[in-house]
Amino acid sequence: MKPSALLLGMLVIGVILTAIGIWGWFMRYNNMYAGYLWSFMVITYAFFAASATGSSLVTAMHTVFGYNGGFKKVARYLIAISLITALPAFPTIIGDLLNPSAFMYMFTSVNPESRMAWMGILYVIYSLILLIELILEMRHKMGVGIGIFALAVQLLTLMNLGAIFGSSYGVPAWYGVFSPVLFVAAAFLLGFAFQIVGVSIAEKVYYGNVRADVKDLLFRVHAKGIVTVLLVFLFLLFWYFAVGWFSPPVYVAQQEMFNYSLWTIVLGGLVSLALASAALAKRSLGTLVFTSLVLIVVVFTSLIYYVLYGQIGQAIWLYDFKAPPDVLKMTVEEFFSQYDWMPALMSPGLWLLLYPLAVKLLALKEDERPRRLFILR
């Protein structure tokens, strides 16, 4: 596929998904829908937030720890990918509120005990740091100091995100305090995956193909990173599965736990590990990009299982492990409500819109002088 056709296709799909998301949000707002559950809006926010943070952590391997290789040639790509992946998280979490203007209360009257308030504050700081990093990189003034500060904020933000889910779904034994560790592993996987896809697109647009040293970087850092983190991810999943399965009492129904484990361990872990290993062995960029797309889908779907079954576990616990079938049915129906999944489409739509525009409008090639945006000059 020609690069111009690829960018145009991304833009068209992005416009369609964003339009559906906006329409879904108006339906949600006009119907005064306020679901009890955390559903697709929250999942999509967590997905893009973790992806952006993971991408920044991968970039920090170079900016902080000095693992350069061909990094300088793609430094602007990687920072731009992190920034653009962070932005779609905001409309989703704001749109989840029945009164979106209430989002500002988080900053005007902060509750120090609220993890959600800290999440909003940390992600605003994080996004500003990414913008500063991009400006400094364009001006060739990027240093270790800003990299270390960014790394600290990224880790705090990501661990706080995992702690929110862990404290909310701490009823089953396999959730709780382990959730931040699982989120860090998932974030690294998503960071590697988004960077592989984003760098491949930018390279084909600018140079017609991925340059040899950039391809070497993707295999030497990203492909090996995926294999390594997947092994950690699998270990964590097997560990959580064992704790949740054998620790009495079992808070989550065995069938539900089996479904979660089947998806995340077999497809999310083993199949992705086999694909990544094959790409690394053959040095096939096409296989590596395909593996990255599979990982993106798998981690997002595993978040659906994680959040849905966590709330089913809460329902079982609240009803003293005798939850009526109607309660569980209502939980699933509310979770998959059109007032949640339709607005959530706005976020992937925005990413598909913003990244092609960034590739065409920003000076992302190394040593290219910014001409269009004054703030980047």
From TrEMBL:
PANTHER family: PROTEIN NRFD (PTHR34856). Its main location: membrane. It comes from Pyrobaculum neutrophilum (strain DSM 2338 / JCM 9278 / NBRC 100436 / V24Sta) (Thermoproteus neutrophilus). Pfam families: NrfD (PF03916). The chain crosses the membrane at residues 7-26, 38-65, 77-95, 115-136, 143-165, 177-202, 223-242, 262-281, 288-308, 341-363. It is found in: Cell membrane. GO terms for cellular component: plasma membrane. Signal peptide: none annotated. Keywords: Cell membrane, Membrane, Transmembrane, Transmembrane helix. Belongs to the NrfD family. It comes from the Archaea. This is Polysulphide reductase NrfD. It is a multi-pass membrane protein.
